[in-house]
Write a structure and sequence with these properties.
alpha/beta; TIM Barrel; 9 strands; Luciferase-like domain-containing protein; Luciferase-like_sf; Luciferase-like_dom; Bact_Lucif_Oxidored
């Protein structure tokens, strides 16, 4: 199996720990996965979630740029409705100056949080369509404005050749595929959120059929995201995955807190309905020993026609998380 693997990090803050420690763990992780051969390290944007330290991906990526030298760094993604397009263009061009030729700008149109927090993020700015925000972002980043544009002449600083990074559009349905094809961007399908393999394949096929080449992408490029928990044995992996179910249950209940431990997940007094919610969340992940995980990833890549897979591993123990990524890479390399 020669398909490239990448990492999507949500920066879990384990119960009993804190944000500074989680950030240091993230910097260790990005160094580890760079050495293991992962192609990209992306950081997701989430808000009002006390168990995750990924509220400002740009800050994490700037720090990661100083402790790595090869791995590509990117947002997975910037939730564009939460931000000014000009500020996004400036921030990621500056990141490109810190890490030349290895920055990706992944963009999504979801808020990455609940509706109330989204309103707080956006302040008094009126909402505008994602397509308009995207067009403004590209114009600010490249200087290519349509005739008569009111912001013509404004350039996102710093200015320099190759600083505006390649764009990726995040999608959990067919809409993002249409946008990515139209602007000649990469497509990142969120199978870890919507594990509908048929929909992922349909999005990939429609994207490839409608793709218009761009300076950054001469050909279409599809990346598929998956939640993965890998351990030496299936039993160990299933145990490590238990907190994932509790985390999603708490999100469903509107509760916020740090990422739970295995002991907390085992001790939680689930109702029958709550247990069903938690178990369903775990079933959306690929959980198992190295051979099982590698086989399922190979099948996922085949079924979705992915060019690349990006893996998110949420575990309470940072060492177990790093070990999961190592086991996966070693197993996939042997296929």
């Amino acid at each position: 199996m020669s398909i490239p693997l990448s990492v999507l990090d949500l920066l879990p803050i384990p119960s009993g720990s804190d944000a500074p420690t989680a950030l240091q763990d993230a910097l260790k992780l990005v160094q580890d996965v760079e050495q293991l051969g992962y192609k990209r390290y992306w950081v997701a944007e989430h808000h009002n979630m006390l168990g995750l330290a990924s509220s400002v991906p740009l800050a994490v990526l700037a720090a990661a740029s100083q402790v790595t030298s090869r791995i590509r760094l990117g947002s997975g993604g910037v939730m564009l409705p939460n931000h000014s397009p000009l500020s996004v263009a400036e921030g990621y061009k500056l990141l490109s100056a810190l890490a030349p030729h290895r920055v990706d700008l992944g963009l999504g149109r979801a808020p990455g949080t609940d509706g109330r927090t989204a309103r707080a993020l956006r302040g008094v700015n009126p909402e505008q369509p994602f397509e308009r925000e995207l067009a403004e972002l590209i114009a600010f980043g490249t200087g290519n404005y349509p005739a008569g544009h009111p912001f013509a002449g404004i350039l996102a600083a710093p200015v320099g050749e190759g600083l505006f990074p390649p764009l990726w559009i995040l999608s959990s349905s067919g809409y993002g595929a249409e946008v990515a094809a139209y602007i000649g961007a990469g497509l990142a399908f969120a199978w870890h959120i919507n594990p509908d393999t048929a929909m992922a394949r349909a999005a990939a096929d429609s994207y490839r059929a409608a793709f218009r080449p761009s300076p950054d992408f001469s050909e279409p490029r599809v990346m598929v995201a998956a939640n993965v928990v890998c351990a030496p044995t299936q039993q160990e992996a299933e145990e490590l995955a238990l907190p994932l179910g509790l985390m999603f249950l708490r999100l469903r209940l509107g509760e916020v807190g740090q990422f739970p431990s295995v002991a907390e997940a085992k001790a939680y007094p689930y109702t029958e309905q709550e247990r069903a919610v938690a178990e369903a969340a775990i079933r959306r992940a690929i959980v198992g020993d190295p051979q099982q995980v590698a086989a399922r990833l190979k099948q996922l890549a085949h079924d979705t026609a992915a060019d690349e897979l990006i893996l998110s591993t949420l575990l309470h123990d940072p060492a177990a998380r790093q070990e999961s990524y190592r086991l996966v890479m070693d197993a996939v390399a042997q296929l």
